[in-house]
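Hypothesis: this fold can be encoded by more than one sequence.
Test: take the structure tokens below, design a sequence, compare later.
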């Protein structure tokens, strides 16, 4: 699977409504299983071991099972995280977060992943310090090599990296990171989580420097025969398939679709949750009112997913069904990248999808906040 030709579609378990995800994965597999490989990711600090193991068992179509240790939660001085990023329950669910000074800490992290049934193990994935690049890279590799030395027969280990966006958007840091990856022949699977600024929930990045860095990272991994997985990237991760990434991660919530820099926002009393809908024809999420406008435009293609009849067939608006529609359609788009790759490979397939979306959305009667501004940057980068 990790070295196969089909793109890897990772579904993050997340926190709420996780019980609906095995059914979603089954539906995606039933309709698109010949054109993608499904995997799933659970966060070890998010629930008890038994609950995570049960989720893996229910997600039987997921050939790849990852139990993310989320050790980046310890790095609130390097990442922009919420106040108290670990929380009382997480200390209990992931006791290794409190034992970082132990000589066998890395082995504890891996053992916790084995205990819930993961079949791709990760190194701890502490955040890399952009102000001490070589020191943090050396520490990362030294720790990973120690873990690799005690892997059991038949186990796979991925090099787990968590990086602020400066590591990809800045040339000097990016070159140092790519050189280090190039030197590490012992790791053929990379699991790279990148934190970037985000203006609006579910909106992909349009930062040209960051997109360029993602492209160079994916290009390098493809050239060197390494499997690059990009968790928590949503549709930006889908774009990276064009450049050589093997797979990407997405989930029901906005947090599972972008590892965004935390910004405190004060909600207004009585404020209603926004009703958002993913328009696959636009490669963009819009509010419900904008969907009604777009739906009336000639050339609009009605969604045929199994969730939209229930979403639009009754009131009030169902946020879970809207999220399931989003994940199903992203699965369809991921499958399409494989199905349309005969001409120009994945790059050609993604370019055609992005070009079509940009042409169709040009001139749509949308408000400024609903326009898919990222498409211009994406089109240029392709």
């Amino acid at each position: 699977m990790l070295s196969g030709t089909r793109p890897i579609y990772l579904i993050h378990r997340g926190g709420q409504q996780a019980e609906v995800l095995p059914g979603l994965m089954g539906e995606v597999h039933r309709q698109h299983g010949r054109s993608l490989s499904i995997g799933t990711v659970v966060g070890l600090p998010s629930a008890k071991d038994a609950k995570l193991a049960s989720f893996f068992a229910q997600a039987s179509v997921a050939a790849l099972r990852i139990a993310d240790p989320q050790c980046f939660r310890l790095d609130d001085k390097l990442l922009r995280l919420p106040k108290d990023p670990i929380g009382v329950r997480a200390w209990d669910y992931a006791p290794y977060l409190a034992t970082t000074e132990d000589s066998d800490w890395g082995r504890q992290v891996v053992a916790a992943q084995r205990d819930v049934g993961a079949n791709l193990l990760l190194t701890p994935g502490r955040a890399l310090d952009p102000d001490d690049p070589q020191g943090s890279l050396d520490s990362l590799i030294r720790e990973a090599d120690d873990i690799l030395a005690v892997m059991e027969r038949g186990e796979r280990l991925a090099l787990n990296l968590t990086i602020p966006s400066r590591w990809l958007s800045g040339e000097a840091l990016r070159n140092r990171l790519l050189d280090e990856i190039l030197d590490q022949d012992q790791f053929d699977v990379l699991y790279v989580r990148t934190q970037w600024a985000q203006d609006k929930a579910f909106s992909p990045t349009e930062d040209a420097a960051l997109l360029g860095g993602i492209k160079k990272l994916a290009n390098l991994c493809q050239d060197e025969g390494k499997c690059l997985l990009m968790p928590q990237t949503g549709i930006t991760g889908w774009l990276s398939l064009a450049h050589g990434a093997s797979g990407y991660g997405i989930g029901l919530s906005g947090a599972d679709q972008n590892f965004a820099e935390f910004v405190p926002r004060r909600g207004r009393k009585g404020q209603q949750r926004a009703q958002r809908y993913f328009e696959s024809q636009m490669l963009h999420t819009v509010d419900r009112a904008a969907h009604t406008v777009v739906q009336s435009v000639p050339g609009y293609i009605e969604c045929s997913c199994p969730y939209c009849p229930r979403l639009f067939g009754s009131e009030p608006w169902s946020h879970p069904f809207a999220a399931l529609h989003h994940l199903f359609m992203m699965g369809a788009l991921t499958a399409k990248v494989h199905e349309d790759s005969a001409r120009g490979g994945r790059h050609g397939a993604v370019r055609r999808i992005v070009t079509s979306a940009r042409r169709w959305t040009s001139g749509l009667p949308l408000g400024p906040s609903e326009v898919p501004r990222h498409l211009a940057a994406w089109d240029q980068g392709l």
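The longest strand covers residues 157-164. The two ends are 26 Å apart (CA to CA).
Hypothesis status: open.
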